Amino acid sequence: MHPRVKPALRRAWRDRQSVQFGVTSAHAVLVGPVDTATGSMIELLDGTRGMPLLRTEGRALGLPDGQVDTLVARLTAAGLIDDVTAGGPDADALRERAGELDRLRPDLASLTVVHPEPGGGARQLAARRAARVQVRGAGRVGATVASLLSASGVGRVDVLDGGCVEPWDVAPGGVPAESVGTRRDSAARQAVRRAAPGRPLREGSRAAESAGEPGLSLVVVTPRDGLDAYAPDPASAGTWVRSGIPHLYAGVVEATGVVGPLVLPGGSACAGCMERARAELDPGWPRMLAQWRSGRRAGVPACDIALATAVAALATAHALSFLDGELPSTTGARWEAALPLLDWRSQPVAAHRECGCGAGGGREGDTASRDLKAQDTMAG
Description:
380 residues, 44% helix, alpha/beta, single chain, 3 domains
């Protein structure tokens, strides 16, 4: 073990005998009492020394035998110690790709704060490279989501969409202006490759996937027509629900941003649950929704660049949280923000008892609910 006090957390002496690690209340930890010799020992926990050398340094500082081990164990229990050699073989392989790791160091620092165990950040970052995410929709929101996922270290980001890039599809984090007129999916995939911190994993085919390549970890549904994110069609999501593929909705419709819900098939509310619940609250909703879906949409979408970028960023953060083993707040809920105030609000999305996905009850739903609870326990 080569212990290192997590550099992502700033530290300061609160008084003569206590040290605070971290600024914000979400992750700050107060350690005390700490004498002068122990404080000097903490400065030496920088990842360059193994435990034998640290014990020697501790004796030189006048610390009694066993005090260095006690200090490291104490700081580890507080979530303040990382191990620059831990994380497993995939993390070791990532460390060997120096250029790629340099690009991802801010992401790694963030993961070390969120995952307190030594080597936890490196383990999670390496696991992202093995993940495969599909982004369905390559407009202002979708192409930006795909690029952000790639830049965050996700190894396989596939983008699906049709048609050609329009001038209003262009976004700073998505497809560039020179892509106008080219195939939309191709332009988005090129953006994914440009954003990747290292050489992206090869885009797979069905044959390659059947030969052992990983299946989908997550689908992020980012339709260019934001209505399909605000009121998703259950028929379009049927394959994911039946196959048990988690999927997250995100988009902008009429200057309103939407992120969520994250659907865990059989464990949380799906598109069918949302449609049934809305119809019960508003009997006229199905009639209007049928007209909106079948009618020809005039003009360009009301999807300004700042809101589209904010939606893409929030959706990416929730997707990464899920890939890292957590259940983000979009699980069974949807976040919305409308211009001009951009007051983000969360609305619960409950599983419907009569929906065929099983999340609202019945044997299938009970099984999936147990799976969901198991994921929650693992995330905790």
